[in-house]
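Q: Fold this one first, please.
A: Sequence and structure below.
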Amino acid sequence: MAKNEILLETGTNELEILEFFIDIPESEDGPEARCHFGVNVAKVMQVIESPQLTHPESAEHPCFMGTIPLRNHILPVLDLAVWLGMERKPHKYDIVIVTEFSQTVSGFQVSGVTEIHRVGWQQVLSPDKFMSSFDDSCIVGIVEREDRFIQLLDLESILADLDPTLGGNLGEPTMVATEAYAALVCDDSPTIRAMLEQSLDKANFRHSIVHNGEEAQKALKQAKLASQQEGRPITDYIEIVISDIEMPQMDGFSLTKWIREDDVLKNLPIILYSSIITKELRHKGESVGADEQISKPDLHLLPEKAIRLIEAKKRVRPY
């Protein structure tokens, strides 16, 4: 197998980011500058030339520039600089990054695209530990390059701000477990963790919640050790793993692959969820052995799917 094929294999704890930039004009606050940003390539459909739209006065948000036809979609175009509160220096050849995630196709106008980088999740630095200028809630990580810092954007938070229905609404669970099942939940977003905790409480789950795949791995190792020392099945400690895919340190794909390679843990049911789960990308979760994959707008289905998976595995085979 070629080296590049190995690197692109799902479960290597790597991601590819598209680096792009927004140019800021000279002003009283300082000289002309270029700000670098990044987004997961898995969310990018294509890059097109800007249609040079102008903001319609009737738009509810100043970042909305209008719509254009693209393939089978009516594409809303958003000026990313306006949403970020930045002044963008206009160029004749501004571009639009067309994205698809959370079952939504959108276009983000920026100044230009630089290149694609392949990085390990371990290289993604936490913004709150870095510098105060990166405190914006839509910045989920920082990648350092030779002469610049690439700010990784949480595009989901941007769209959810414009349309709250896209953020997913857990609401009341569609099923409640007849006994308290033990779930290990893994997500780096405080907002999603709180939503899942509330939803799983209502569905009668006992749960432990961690921040990333590396912390989940430690929790699973501790549960495995306890089960071996006490002579009890692993399901006395953890009956299902529920994990986001995009996380620093260790992503959900790598966590799932590691679980499936462990003799004690391999039969635990696993649910992965993310905004990047589409029909085209579903094969990635399948390749590492996920039992279920849920797109974030459908998180309200998670408790029911978890209950059905646990009960189905109990009927089919012991752990």
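Q: Good. Now the second chain.
A: Here it is, same layout.
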Amino acid sequence: MKILVIEDEAGMLHSITAYFAKSGYVCEVATTFAEAEEKIHLYEYDCVILDITLPDGNGLDILEQLKKRKSQAGIIILSAKNSLDDRVKGLTLGADDYLPKPFHLTELNARVVAILRRLKFDGSNEVTIGNIILNLDTKKVYVDKEELILKKKEYELLLFFISNKTRIISKTSLAEHIWGDNADRADSFDFLYSQIKNLRKRLLEYKANYNIEAIYGIGYKFVNV
């Protein structure tokens, strides 16, 4: 899953991104209002962790822009101002949750996971498609009750395909979602082709009844086989 952390406090930013990166999330960051504004217009995210107080603007204005763009991202507001007005305004504008500083990273993680489950998987911690079962808590995958061992990026690709099973996904969208900012620095999509090839092979070996289909000139789709 891809998270954008909008936070100007360096120590807090490092703690949040290190924690989520260790958990397997792709984390991008913005430390100013201008940087955050640019990122939400260029990229899509599963979740946005948004500090209200930014050096060059109000984080609630970023929230308003996300909602005007009809972003599907879950949004958690962070603020040192533990005031009722901030909380009410943020939730009224469409934020999914509000967490006052200071907080424990485990609590922030629990709220992110809860939002992603609710928005993408109807609140369930298990996702089933065909004979594939994916557990969001343990990050384990089973095909006909036999565990399918995947590498981290393969797991993220599979989860992204399942989350978007009705869509054709472009190569650019896949690369940005799984590799974040690093995808922009790549000279080619070879790194993506390699991961998709490996995931396809693993699904075929375990006789999964869904796999990745290449749509010529466009991208990929997760289809019943």
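Q: Anything worth noting on the second one?
A: The mean pLDDT is 89.
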